[in-house]
Amino acid sequence: MSDAINTTQKIPPLSPHRRNWMRFRANRRGYYSLWIFSILFVISLGAEVISNDRPIIIQYQGEYYFPLFNQYTESEFGGDFDTEADYTDPYVKELLNQDGNWVIYPPNPYSYNTINYFTEQPNPAAPSAENLLGTDDRGRDVLARLLYGFRLSVLFAFVLTAIGVAVGVLAGALQGYLGGRFDLFAQRLIEIWGSMPELYLLIIFASLFDPSILLLIVLLSLFGWMGLADYVRAEFLRGRNMDYVRAARAMGVSNRAIMFRHLLPNSLTPVITFLPFRISGAILALTSLDFLGLGVPPSTPSLGELLAQGKENIESWWLSMTTFVVLVGTLTLLIFIGEALREAMDTRRG
What we know:
Distance between the termini: 29 Å
Helix content: 55-70%
Strand order of the largest sheet: 2-1-3
């Protein structure tokens, strides 16, 4: 009996990170949402292999070709022109499949900008065996544009969130640790900057510059850090007078080391718990701007652009319905993940 008690006492306690992870896993809804979102994102990273108008591999006259990575002329496959082969052309398809040659196409043989010139229905065409989710008003495959648009939205949200977190954490840490006049001046500056009409600025810059992802990231990053800076500032204000910080100062530890080695790890709870909500907010911002015509260029696959097409073509239900399902499903998964993170990192729970 005493040996069992001693053995039990030797079990080391769980680290805070391990305990938080176990709490997160206990929330099945958030845990499964993380898995589903991760799987969908990984699949979208391979969009070129899943949905593309170029074959994955071609075996032609005993040689292998990889159009996904290289450009080949039509004449290399027995055609008439020295321009790049159009693999959607029935003539080129016939050349690639005759005399024992073979081709492996992606599961969905359309890229996000591929126009189906051979459909028998007027565009936008309803879902069919040829285009599983139909086509948009220009004859482009909706499934391909949803897949590429989802990847673009998530990557855009990741970049925007990373920049916002980096700037917000730095600004909040400096305000909270230094305090005094610096904090007072920074707060007034943030109040002035936060009162700027963000949408009007986006409209002005959209009229002055060509629309691009880089322009959107720069403009939205100018405003996306302020909310997080307030939370980090509050954590640093609370922690800078604690005993372990005073002890570090007494030992001669530099302010930089105290801020980023001691205070910051203990102030990351609001940063981590708000990450999924910031990502969902960035996705929604990009979709809204694209819907208004202030986002990415027209040829870029975008969920907002598909929603705008659905508004212009009310009878084409597949445009708005499929985009709505993808957008709401993505935001729902991120909200479930955020709720699970918030509960897992709640310090009031034992």
